[in-house]
Amino acid sequence: MSVARFWRKQPSRYNLIGTQCSKCKSLYFPPRELCRKCKSSKLAPHQFKGAGKIVSYTVIRVPPTGFELLTPYVIAIVQLEEGPRLTTQIADCDIEKVSIGDKVQLAFRKISEDGKTGAIYYGYKFKCVHPHLKEMQKKS
Ligand SMILES: [Zn+2]
User: Fold this and answer.
1) Domains in the chain, start-ordered, CATH in brackets?
2) 104 Cα to the center of ligand 1, angstroms
3) Could you tell me which PANTHER family the record lists for this protein (predicted)?
């Protein structure tokens, strides 16, 4: 099955599924169908554990339409334990204490709510893992 077909068949909003190169084992998220390193097109779906750390972040205080209830919130670049980086919202954190290197874990959360239709959208976010303990964590 091609990666694209696999991707369409998966409830991708509820799984952190990327791809892995069958040749050089490079991992990708979001999924790619062509390996950036060895140019191989033999990539297989790969489910990530969902653990990572913050490598960069910004606090959003003026939200786009539909996100008003959430402000202020944190958007961060998270590096997964397996290597790939992704941009995501950070939930359940003290925005005054968020810092680079914080450990985060995948969590499914309400992303936005459409006031007119009442529709609620869910997707992935990451939440802080023991943010108050970060001083005790050794740097990696
Ligand atoms: Zn490769």
Assistant:
1) 3-47 (no CATH), 51-136 (2.40.50)
2) 27
3) BLR3430 PROTEIN (PTHR34075)
